[in-house]
User: Fold these one by one.
Assistant:
Number 1:
Amino acid sequence: MGVKNTATEKTTANSRWPGVIQQKKKAMAGRMFMFIALVLAWLVALTAGCEDEQIEWEIEEVPQLLVVEGSLTSEYQRHQVRLTTSADYFSNQSTPGVPGASVKLVSPRDTFAYEESPNQDGLYLSTKPFAGQPGQSYTLDIRLQEPINQRTHYQASETMIPGMVLDTIEAVLYENPLYVENSPMDSLILYITAYGEEPKDIQNYYMVNLYRNQQALMDTIDEVEIYSDQEELEGRRVNHLFFFEDFQPGDTVGLKLHTISKGYRRYMNGLENIVNQSGNPFDLSGPPANATGNIEGAQALGYFRVSQVTHARTIVKEGE
């Protein structure tokens, strides 16, 4: 009985594998070369075909609309309304003013006429100063000289909601316990104590304006803060507010509170969503939905806001 030489068989079998592997490698290399060649040829053809070709964007045409920006407050002053027209979503031009309109403000007691500014198309000012009254309803009435989207008559109505009346405020600077070096967060916290009666039977929203040495802060749409009396201002005599702003001891700080309606709060939330959306030009999701305003009688954009306003100021102190 012979003995099988397994060592020789293994050596012989193994000696055949290098040739097989080399053949497979050559075949795979050939197929890879053909694949790369085809991809390169496709890219060259695509580049040549698109060299002078303009990409046509299919954008839904939206009719031109009237845009209304107006406010009435409890401050004794000449109030203003701005009328412009909407622009295309991808336009980088300023929106033109709408001249020649008839604008008036109507309440159950009075009618206030507005006149167009001689220095700016589309800006209308009340002909005389007056102060809105808390609890009173007001209707803005607009009649255009030329129709926009086949409409000439527009209206908007709101009621001036009573709110807190500030007596005094105190402002103290403290170190920010959450501050980390080289972070965008400010190293100090401005702690404001506001003294004033806040109605307990009315659910209020407040738009807050802050001033440093008589210069407005938080004055852009994405910086505006809106408080609820169900959260920050809870019908107390004493209320505390925190701000991460760049103040120094000795600065003058001013605090102004505007009562606003729930509708205006939703409108501002919509505007903030639009402002904070991605600026990526390759985001093909389309233009954002417009913030819902209160202009009635025809399709239009914007809001006519009515607010009771209260304000106070003090000198910033350094916390102990």
Number 2:
Amino acid sequence: MTKRKIMFIYNPISGLLQHYNIPKQIEKYIDTKKFEVSIRKSEYAGHTTVLAREAGEAGFDIVVAIGGDGSVNEVVNGIANTDTQLAIIPMGSGNGFANHLKIPPRNFKECIRIINFGKPVEIDLAKTNTKYGYFVSVGGFGFEALAAQRFKEHPLRGFVSYVVAILRQYFLYKNTQRARIHIDSKTLDRDIFIFTIFNSNQYGYNVGFSNNSSLKDGVLEMVMLKKFVWYRLLWNIFILLMRKPHWSSDVEYFKGHKIKVEKLDPFVVQIDGDPFVIDHDLDVEIAPKALKVIVNKRLEIY
């Protein structure tokens, strides 16, 4: 039997990964009768994308992202629209994409079992006009992007730090952002507090606003929280976390294939949880079946 070529990529200076002997974990659980294994370390921002692209060009069948949503995003942008398959060992904080696919976080044994015995499925991506190219889970702007920026600056990771970043950002930022948004043939002018585009069903930590997001339905879901009076804050947070956006008149929910956000000033956006500033319109569109990813062979709904 011809062995399949598989490359594992990880960041050796990642805080959490420093507690693991990555090569030893891979050697312990991977089926060497099925796979010819290569392990690479990323050395700088964007290097993971370079390594993933080179792996695809060299004929590797599978590239494994070891890390959080950012690492997954980098690998995806190296192998999208190719025959090279993605596999994931989620080792980040939120792990939103892996959670959607029911891949357990920080569990080398189970994740490599999925690689050994799982199946490849085709999923949609969201294509953007930003430096990231594609995202797998979520993108957006407003309060969520600014909270992501604050979380990125926090010295500690984890859910508690995430909540603290959200609360601190709320007390510092209570404004909305005026924007014109085009969703397919519809045009909206709104004062926006949160605008999120979902490909998967969550940000991370199993927190999301949409129950309907599917990775194979050929559409993107959008949740918009408009300007609201202060005493409705807790209610709006509650209904969003319950994934019931239709319960509040302050929230609008849309589906679409192509989105353009027009703003006059530079603004902070987040792509798969990573915040950055852009000084141009934001364009996002669905890229159907643009990626092959390995999942548990029993997984049917994704």
